[in-house]
């Protein structure tokens, strides 16, 4: 396999940090597919995502020490998808039907990543990427299930890190909402357990990606 060109590396490094979704011209994306660094999702809108080889190229670039001071960061692209964890202090980006389409596309891309990277091609079990992006992966599973994240002035789920390896905490103020979160995560291939909060009362979930 030929090493990627400088232009291809820039596209790979700019891929969505959560889903690996790529942006570029049709010719650039097609060239990445030919180089086996990307794949085209079979379902509309037929977005392009990093392949396992593309992820390795990006990871190698991230591990390399910087050779010069980095340039100023560009303004955040409002079109880049980010799973909502419910801990945001403000909400940006699309809403309504447009947001639903973005969530659906990100979830389908994650299922395809599972198929390509799990040794048995399983789509019902979390993959290695999810185990290294626990909060984002759990939040995406909840949002893809149609559950509302918390936001200023509105109750909903919150996903946060925990000191435990491969576990996130999921909080939802209502018992019904917490059960709905548990069911959605379990359908998405996670295992959950309900616990009593030590402070402030209430209950929360500990959720971990299932391995088998």
Low-confidence stretches: 66-79
Relative helix content? 25-40%
Number of helices: 7
Largest sheet: 4 strands, antiparallel
Mean pLDDT: 86
The structural domain count equals: 2
| Count of distinct strands | 6
Rg result:
18 Å
Order of helices and strands: HHEEHHHHEEHEE
Strand numbers in spatial order across the main sheet: 3-4-6-5
Region (Disordered): 1-23, 46-80, 147-175, 192-212
Description:
It is a single chain. The longest helix is centred in the middle third of the chain and has 22 residues, at 96-117. With 212 residues, the chain is an alpha+beta fold. The radius of gyration is 18 Å and the shape is globular. The protein has helices at residues 6-13, 26-34, 52-63, 96-117, 128-132, 134-144, 175-187, and strands at residues 38-40, 48-50, 158-161, 168-171, 190-196, 203-209. It has 2 domains: 6-63, no CATH class; 96-209, no CATH class. It contains 7 helices and 6 strands, in the order ααββααααββαββ. Helix content is 38%, strand content 13%.
């Amino acid at each position: 396999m030929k090493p990627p060109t400088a232009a291809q590396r820039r596209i790979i490094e700019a891929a969505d940090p959560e889903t690996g979704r790529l942006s570029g011209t049709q010719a650039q994306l097609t060239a990445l597919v030919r180089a086996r660094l990307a794949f085209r999702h079979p379902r509309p809108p037929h977005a392009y995502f990093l392949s396992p080889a593309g992820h390795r190229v990006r990871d190698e670039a991230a591990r390399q020490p910087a050779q010069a001071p980095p340039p100023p960061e560009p303004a955040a692209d409002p079109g880049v998808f980010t799973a909502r964890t419910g801990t945001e202090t403000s909400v940006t980006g699309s809403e309504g039907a447009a947001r639903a389409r973005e969530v659906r596309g990100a979830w389908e891309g994650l299922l395809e990543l599972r198929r390509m990277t799990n040794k048995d091609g399983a789509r019902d079990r979390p993959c290695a990427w999810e185990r290294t992006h626990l909060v984002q992966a759990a939040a995406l599973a909840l949002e893809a299930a149609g559950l509302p994240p918390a936001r200023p002035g509105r109750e909903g789920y919150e996903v946060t890190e925990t000191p435990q390896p491969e576990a996130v905490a999921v909080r939802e103020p209502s018992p019904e909402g917490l059960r709905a979160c548990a069911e959605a995560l379990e359908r998405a291939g996670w295992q959950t357990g309900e616990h009593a909060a030590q402070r402030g009362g209430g209950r929360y979930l500990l959720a971990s990606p299932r391995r088998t």
